[in-house]
């Protein structure tokens, strides 16, 4: 017995070495790239001048090819804060925002050198590429740890704040799958079902201070800049939630994705064309662990603050649907499904997502978790109608590739990707 134990121990230590090296390299890079962000903190300006909003009004009333939106009394909103949460179908929303922004030549606040704003550090507007105090943007949508006051400095006062939540149990399962190898404390978990093992005794594998540990507890709370280690019954949990409900004009729910998009379209005064989508960054179903009721209950309890958050916004979501009109919602969802299905037939070879190894064109290959290739993508139809080629390409393009197409330098992200793929 001790022999076996010794051997597994040696193997896991050997497994750790590349990681330790990797994290050191990343830490070094991080330090090298961070200092510029400290300089321009803490100054005067609170929000963008109104002149920015007025200036942009013009571009928002541009003629639309779409008869549907012309008959509407509102004009499309162009100033948007999308708080991109982790593992919530937010990549699909990002693709929608990228396409809209590109089409209307809107100004994005992008990160520099990577695809997030120094996550998990709290957001600072100085992390935005080419930021100078007073500089204003139309859209902020990359991963960040939310800080309302900092975000507000970048956007005109009429900006619409939107985010998306997902059932915290499924989110936890997904986050565990995607990130557990990046949380050193979990390397000690043995056995096949690491997630169940973790939930059986979380205290053994979790510490609030441990590196990357936020990925494994109340990740939504953490993303919103709140304390992810609060007890669900702590009054600060509800206070945090109430604060968020004052900040965000609309909170989407991933489980009701189409309904969410219809509410978004309504709020932003967009057309159905603007919200067509293919599901991006989805996992192979074989890589998704089916949790038994007992494990689900444990996951829910472990992520109690996120559960409160989700319950709160799920309730307000359905109140919104009711106000919108339940029948009207059904019609709109059916229309959207029909249009998406038609686009699928036009754009996608074989009509559905395939595993990463089967994606022929490198531009459409999505980013993979460490040591896995469970994220699916699409092949563009070989005999694609030339009229649809461009729109189809955009709809199929994963986040990192699209960011790069929009001119964002991603050297740090790519270096990390290269290291991760070389070692695994
Ligand atoms: C809620 O917002 C108030 C006022 O902005 C702030 O003082 C308080 O710390 C916030 N509470 C939480 C839990 O985030
Ligand atoms: C969300 O709200 C809907 C409508 O009230 C309800 O049917 C559903 O069970 C809720 N989901 C959760 C996880 O509470």
TrEMBL record:
Domain of life: Eukaryota
A GO term from the CC aspect: Golgi membrane
Gene3D superfamilies: P-loop containing nucleotide triphosphate hydrolases
Transmembrane parts of this sequence: 12-32
Subcellular location: Golgi apparatus membrane
Record flagged with keyword Transferase: yes
Membrane topology label: Single-pass type II membrane protein
Keywords: Glycoprotein, Golgi apparatus, Membrane, Signal-anchor, Transferase, Transmembrane, Transmembrane helix
Family, as annotated: Belongs to the galactose-3-O-sulfotransferase family.
Protein name: Galactosylceramide sulfotransferase
Gene designation: gal3st1b
């Amino acid at each position: 017995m001790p022999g076996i134990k010794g051997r597994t121990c040696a193997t896991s230590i050997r497994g750790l070495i590349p990681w330790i090296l990797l994290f050191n390299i990343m830490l070094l890079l991080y330090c090298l790239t961070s200092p510029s962000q400290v300089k321009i903190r803490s100054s005067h300006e609170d929000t963008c001048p109104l002149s920015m909003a007025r200036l942009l009004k013009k571009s928002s009333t541009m003629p639309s090819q779409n008869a549907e939106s012309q008959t509407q009394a509102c004009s499309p909103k162009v100033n948007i804060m999308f708080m991109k949460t982790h593992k919530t179908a937010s990549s699909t929303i990002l693709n929608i925002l990228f396409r809209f922004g590109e089409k209307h030549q809107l100004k994005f606040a992008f990160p520099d050198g990577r695809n997030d704003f120094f996550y998990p550090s709290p957001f600072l507007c100085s992390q935005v590429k080419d930021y100078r105090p007073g500089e204003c943007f139309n859209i902020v949508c990359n991963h960040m740890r939310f800080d309302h006051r900092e975000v507000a400095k970048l956007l005109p006062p009429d900006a619409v704040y939107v985010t998306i939540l997902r059932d915290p149990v499924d989110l936890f399962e997904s986050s565990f799958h995607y990130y557990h190898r990046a949380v050193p404390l979990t390397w000690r978990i043995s056995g096949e079902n690491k997630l169940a093992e973790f939930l059986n005794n979380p205290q053994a594998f979790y510490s609030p201070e441990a590196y990357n540990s936020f990925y494994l507890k109340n990740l939504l709370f953490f993303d919103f800049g709140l304390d992810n280690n609060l007890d669900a019954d702590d009054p600060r949990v509800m206070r945090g939630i109430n604060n968020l409900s004052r900040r965000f004009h609309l909170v989407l729910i991933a489980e009701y994705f189409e309904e969410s998009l219809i509410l978004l379209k309504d709020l932003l005064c967009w057309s159905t064309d603007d919200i067509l989508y293919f599901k991006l960054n989805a996992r192979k179903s074989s890589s998704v662990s089916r949790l038994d009721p007992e494990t689900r209950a444990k996951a829910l309890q472990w992520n109690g603050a996120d559960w409160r958050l989700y319950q709160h916004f799920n309730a307000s979501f359905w109140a919104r649907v009711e106000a919108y009109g339940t029948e009207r919602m059904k019609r709109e969802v059916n229309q959207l499904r029909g249009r998406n299905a038609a686009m699928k037939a036009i754009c996608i070879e074989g009509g559905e997502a395939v595993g990463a190894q089967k994606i022929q064109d490198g531009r459409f290959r999505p980013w993979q978790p460490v040591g896995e290739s469970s994220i699916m993508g699409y092949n563009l139809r070989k005999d694609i109608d030339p009229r649809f080629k461009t729109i189809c390409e955009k709809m199929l393009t994963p986040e990192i590739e699209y960011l790069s197409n929009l001119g964002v330098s991603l050297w740090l992200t790519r270096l990390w990707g290269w290291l991760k793929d070389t070692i695994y």
